[in-house]
């Protein structure tokens, strides 16, 4: 009887131990299998605590389970897992992951950082800048004169021109072959001679001399006869009239008669504006030969479209660039002033004339056509740059900025109005930028010829 009791007790004990072992295995198996893993195979949850108080179970899967929440698992892939936020993973690809911003080394040797350096910087040495006579201007808001761009013509004012006419019939011969449009002449200088010696009608100068000498003899004889009352007083007066007429005609030509013919001189100093006859051409008395202009004061006549009529009241000066010269002239530097602007268009055109007057202290040619920039009221706090600093590529406008002593950069800008001297900048520049004014072409060549080195940094 006692042996049965002992056997029954041993049997119950074995069943109890087997049950505990099965339960522990199920708990361990369920806890490991229920974990969620991320893309690196890291555990997203901690193992559940053991049901048994303080019992440690060794299961065939090789895991070590404990009641502490921070558990460390050694798995077959060599990963070390922990519950702290800053996990450190050692993986087969050799990457080091952390919560800080990472610096990545690419295969091309580039070093990428949060803030990139300039990659479009143009290298232009001090020596190159000196050879190119490079100059810069610091950008700052200032006064800008808006303008109306149009065309015009330089003219000589009335009263400063003289038309030289022929004083005799004959063949023209210029005293100097260099006498043409633009030639400077002085007062009293002979321009042409007119000869009629070989003409059928004879030389008028010789005729005038003969007529004068004949009239003089008749007048002297008439003086004696009238005293003796041989001729009447009426006859004497007629003889005297013929004499004075012949004398006037002869004296008018005798002062200018030369061996080659009648000389025609310029009454004023100036420039030949127009030469109206050619060498060897026949002229008659009173026919225009040439026009001489003094050119002390010149006029600038601009033709303005009717759509700008309301702006003409604010026009007070102008800049202009003649077609034969690439220089821009300012009327303010030439003692210029506005004379008038038309109240209506003339000559059945759609343009309104605006006339200025200025001193001729430059090489200006009366009659030359020119570009005109009519300056309107000034505007304050406007960013502008000289026209020479602007370059254009594929429809876009650029300037070059100086970054340091030998570094430059191409900067795109949006242009506003152009007054011939400066251009308004609507966007692209800020106060304090250094813009290249002269030597722009050389900097542009340096930009196009530069080669980007390998391993450059961003």
From TrEMBL:
Biological processes annotated in GO: copper ion export; plasma membrane copper ion transport
InterPro entries: CzcB_C, MdtA-like_BSH, MFP_Cation_Efflux, RND_pump_MFP
Composition bias type Basic and acidic residues, residue spans: 35-123
Region annotation (Disordered) ranges: 34-123
Gene Ontology terms, MF aspect: transmembrane transporter activity
Pfam families: BSH_RND, CzcB_C
Protein's UniProt keywords contain Transport: yes
Lineage top rank: taxon: Bacteria
The CzcB-like C-terminal circularly permuted SH3-like domain, residue ranges: 383-444
GO cellular component, one term: cell envelope
Keywords linked to the UniProt accession: Transport
Sequence ranges assigned to domain Multidrug resistance protein MdtA-like barrel-sandwich hybrid in this UniProt record: 162-292
Membership in a protein family: Belongs to the membrane fusion protein (MFP) (TC 8.A.1) family.
Protein name as it appears in the record: RND family efflux transporter MFP subunit
